[in-house]
């Protein structure tokens, strides 16, 4: 566990990324991208696939054109990627990350509000959260369809905080991707990175509040933060 800030502050809300954080879906998506590229006669190296993690689909399309040229069949690849991903999900490939239910239960017991802020579109988001059985746990779900600018812009996180009626600085964001960490940090939130396919870099170690191995470590952090936080009647405004 890497810690970059030890100053205890009250946490009023948590905002979750989805892919790679709540759901073990990034590898499924990467395999779908590789398969879609192969169908169209394009090689999608693993390093390239990793580079688009955390980016909304419209940004991914721009990156594809930048890499392969203006004639790249972006719309066909996006459609094929969706088809391959749907097949993987339909055949039981989608699972929750370890610790999700324990963390949500803890937040409910403590009365801490929470939301999702994801780069995925609304239909896919709701479908995937429904498949793993947690869509009903979230009163607020912010998707790429709900904002003008996706991650790494802070708008998804600022929108989620507004819907939760909590100031950004009172929110804790949970992310696995570089763009997600950048977005939450730019929104003025503390962010814990829980790496999935992407390893923590020097930039991430300097940006994230902490870098942990799993959501179980987030639970431990909340316990620690709860014990260390000053009482409300002692807080100076």
Write a compact overview of the structure shown.
The chain is of the alpha/beta class.
Notes on the structure:
With 237 residues, this protein is an alpha/beta fold. Helix content is 46%, strand content 10%. It is built from ten helices and seven strands. Strand 5, helix 8 (178-186) and strand 6 form a beta-alpha-beta unit. 39% of the residues are buried.
Helix and strand topology:
Layout: E1 2-3, E2 13-16, H1 26-39, H2 46-51, H3 57-68, H4 74-90, H5 100-110, E3 113-117, H6 122-131, E4 141-142, H7 155-164, E5 171-175, H8 178-186, E6 190-193, H9 202-207, E7 210-211, H10 215-228
Parallel strand pairs: 2-3, 2-5, 3-4, 5-6, 6-7
Antiparallel strand pairs: 1-7
Helix pairs in contact: 1-4, 5-10
